[in-house]
Structures are given as structure tokens and as C-alpha cells.
Amino acid sequence: MAEPSYAEQSPIGVAVRSRCPRCGRGHLFSGFLKVAPRCDVCGLDYSFADPADGPAFFVMMTAAVPATAFGIWLELTYSPPLWVHAITTLPIVLIACTLPLRFFKGWLVAEQYIRKAEEGRIARPGASTRDPT
């Protein structure tokens, strides 16, 4: 029996919808950040997915720096008491660093699937890397 064909999914679309990178319908996550074992619609095994620290890196570079800069600006401009930072800066940093994690993790999993990414290997000295055919 032939395997059904699926329309190619956009990595950004997969990330926004948190859907399967193959069929676009099944759930990608079984929790907030836990990748499901497999797609509940097409059965794609998600064991290939290992975004590691990638999502945290992208969040730090895109959200954490501006959120922290806000807290520094608030301190240098107004010198407010500590409780003001607790009710303004702390929630901003927590929200800015937590919410985008799911998006970035979904995006990296989709990129790994679409680009057929694999773990890097070191070639043995003298081993031919050419195709024998």
C-alpha cells in the first residue's frame, strides 16, 4: 500500500498552529513545551525532533534582551522602589521569555523535519564521502 502524499507545510505555519509538520492537522505538543511522541492524525514519529537549547537561545535574543532593557531603563530613569519592579519588570520578563518558547520549539521541529536534519557525524579519515554509484 502506498503512503499517502501530504502537502508541504510552512515551518512558520507549523509553529503558529502547533501542528504536525507532515500533515498539518495533528497536534505537535502534548503539553505546553513537551513534544508529543507521534502525530495523532498521520502517525509521524516525532523522535527525530531534538531542538535542544535552540528555542531558549532565540527567546533570549529576541525577547529577553528588550524586556531586560525595559527594567534597566525604568531603574535609571525613575529609580522606583523594588516593589515597582516586582509588579512591572518581573511579569514583563517572565511573559516575554515564556510565551515565545512554544513557537520557537515548533518552528525548530518543523525545520528539522522539512530539511531532514540529522545528528552531525565526523567522517573517519580515509573514508570516501562520494556516492559509490
Account of the 3D structure:
Keywords: Membrane, Transmembrane, Transmembrane helix. InterPro entries: DUF983. Pfam families: DUF983 (PF06170). The chain is mostly helical and 133 residues long. The protein is built from four helices and no strands. Helix content is 48%, strand content 0%.
The beta-strand count equals: 0
Cα separation of the termini: 29 Å
Shape: elongated
Q: In sequence order, what are the helices and strands, one letter per element?
A: HHHH
Rg, Cα atoms, Å: 21 Å
**Average pLDDT rating:** 91
- What structural class do helix, strand and pairing data support? mainly alpha
Contiguous helical run count: 4
Sketch the major β-sheet: none
Helix percentage: 40-55%
In percent terms, what proportion of residues is strand? under 5%
Low-pLDDT segments, ≥5 res: none
**What oligomeric state is this?**
single chain
Short description:
The chain has 133 residues and is mainly alpha-helical. It is 48% helix and 0% strand.
